[in-house]
Design a protein that fits this description.
With 276 residues, the protein is of the alpha/beta class. It is 43% helix and 20% strand. The protein has one domain (2-272): 3-Layer(aba) Sandwich (Rossmann fold).
Length: 276
């Protein structure tokens, strides 16, 4: 099952590397709620990194780098960066997304995240952005990131949020999932023919992800969510991009409400490996 999952997503992202490269490059430049979410996520992650105050020449790991959306900003901040992805197509795109001036400060590697090709306690910072949902073994992936982080090193991880506002308000879809749970034959009939159920992306609620991180030894420092729209009915969008963007801006104003704060489309957790 593990190989099937890794093989599926390796091929999927190899075939779509050019598309995802363009998505990250145009994030926030078009009238798309998802593009705005990508931009918000990137800005928040870079803001968190700045607040860490890490020294120049610190070692950063982008575990699941995709087309390299974070390579250039990390290099510009003075990091030495190791970027790894199991998709060779994604790594090839990543290699084109930073200035040759930084070539001696970058390592690009094609590898599974469940077995990182790096020494233990090598990195001061690790990013794992929207990747955990696709790996074969999430606990092992987190354990590997823990292994390669230095004591005191920071991990910033994001996942699609299973407890997002859109899902909570889409009662028909929640009832449908409950029905599938009790009717395995129905679930099998609904699965896309080209995507076996064993490779369906996982979603994590905040408590689930924190449990995985803490089980690996991480200490949670900060949690946040990003993007409150689009709203859905039967799993399909209700409003236009413009309406969703306006709704998202409105909800951002009241995001301080406790029950709302962690119900964004993306869940982010900052944690660290305890100092020795």
């Amino acid at each position: 099952m593990a190989d099937k999952r890794n093989d599926y997503y390796r091929t999927y992202y190899d075939d779509r590397s050019a598309y995802w490269d363009s998505v990250y490059k145009t994030a926030g430049q078009e009238l798309s709620i998802y593009a705005v979410h990508f931009k918000q996520r990137r800005e928040l992650i870079l803001k968190i990194i700045d607040a860490l105050g890490l020294a120049r020449d610190s070692n950063a790991l982008d575990a699941g780098c995709g087309p390299g959306a974070y390579l250039a900003p990390l290099l510009e901040k003075g990091f030495r960066v190791s970027a790894v992805d199991q998709s060779a197509g994604m790594v090839e795109k990543a290699g084109k997304n930073f200035s040759e001036h930084y070539a001696d400060r970058v390592r690009l590697t094609v590898s599974s995240l469940e077995s990182l090709p790096f020494a233990s306690e090598e990195f001061d910072l690790a990013l794992n952005v929207a990747v955990l949902m696709y790996v074969s073994d999430d606990a092992r992936t987190i354990a590997e990131i823990y292994r390669v982080l230095k004591p005191g090193g920071t991990l910033i991880m994001t996942v699609d949020n299973k407890r997002d506002l859109a899902d909570m308000l889409d009662l028909p879809m929640r009832l449908k999932r409950l029905w599938r749970r009790w009717r395995p034959t129905a679930k099998k009939a609904i699965e896309p023919a080209n995507r076996p159920a064993t490779v369906k992306p996982r979603n994590y609620g905040p408590q689930e992800l924190k449990y995985l991180l803490q089980s690996a030894g991480f200490v949670i420092d900060e949690e946040e969510s990003i993007g409150f729209a689009p709203l859905l009915l039967h799993g399909k969008r209700i409003f236009s991009d413009l309406a969703d963007l306006r709704l998202d801006r409105l909800l951002q104003i009241v995001r301080w409400i406790p029950r709302l704060r962690l119900t964004g489309y993306t869940y982010l957790c900052r944690c660290h490996r305890p100092p020795q």
